[in-house]
Amino acid sequence: AQTVTQSQPEMSVQEAETVTLSCTYDTSESDYYLFWYKQPPSRQMILVIRQEAYKQQNATENRFSVNFQKAAKSFSLKISDSQLGDAAMYFCAYRSAMTSGTYKYIFGTGTRLKVLA
Amino acid sequence: ETGVTQTPRHLVMGMTNKKSLKCEQHLGHNAMYWYKQSAKKPLELMFVYNFKEQTENNSVPSRFSPECPNSSHLFLHLHTLQPEDSALYLCASSQENRAGSGYTFGSGTRLTVV
After folding, report:
1. Please, are residues A96 and A52 in contact by the beta-carbon 8 Å criterion?
2. Chain A residues with CB inside 8 Å of B45's CB?
3. Interface touch A102/B96, C-beta < 8 Å
């Protein structure tokens, strides 16, 4: 069975600085997707960035980028130029790339990010 | 507009009440999910519906009863709940033949059982 681990319950970053959130996972599959979701106080979880396992290039979305290390099963999220609006819970998630049937996403326990003014 | 709408946003109910949570999506997705989010716990998958058919019931107590009348609507009927059922209940949808598309979540219903 797949598992997702976020070992940092809480992180803090100074506004305009860079922070990296860690995520490791375990799977025997070779093809899958990884995601980072953000859950602000408004509670709605928003997709921040996704990575396809068969792509070696790290995904980037504006100030958000990932460091995907397939062999190490590591998928960290880097937030550059942190803004107050980045304060939220961040969840790492895994999903098999199989498209037959219905496959659930496996979520980590989350990292609460605080941004200090 | 988030694409997935959940109502009500907040709900307080007694242990003997019966209430329902509603989720609606107009994204054309073919799968819908109920998740329970409790403090300091991973998201717990409760139910999965794929093309209106329930494909997963993750050992959820019978006091939670899902209903999916069509691919756009999902309900969670609640009865004789316990205080430990207090949590944020999240609905999500996805297009299951596009594995990398990710979920779209609603804003959740904050449920308090008194």
Report:
1. no
2. 104-105
3. yes
Residues of B in contact with A47 (CB under 8 A): 102-104
Q: Are B89 and A45 spatial neighbours (Cβ–Cβ below 8 Å)?
A: no
SS3 B52: coil
Please say whether the beta carbons of B25 and B35 come within 8 A: no
Distance CA B93, CA A96 (A): 16
What is the spatial distance between Cα A110 and Cα A113, in angstroms, rounded to a whole number? 9
Helical segments of chain A, H only: none
Q: Do B105 and A45 touch (CB under 8 A)?
A: yes
Task: Say how far apart CA B25 and CA A53 lie, in whole Å.
Answer: 29
Contact by Cβ (8 Å): A49, A69: no
- Rounded-to-integer distance, Cα A46 and Cα A60, Å: 16
Question: pLDDT tens digits for B2-59?
Answer: 599 999 999 999 988 899 999 999 999 988 999 999 987 888 889 988 876 776 777 8
> Is B103 an interface residue toward A (CB < 8 Å)?
yes
Do B103 and B32 touch, CB atoms closer than 8 A? no
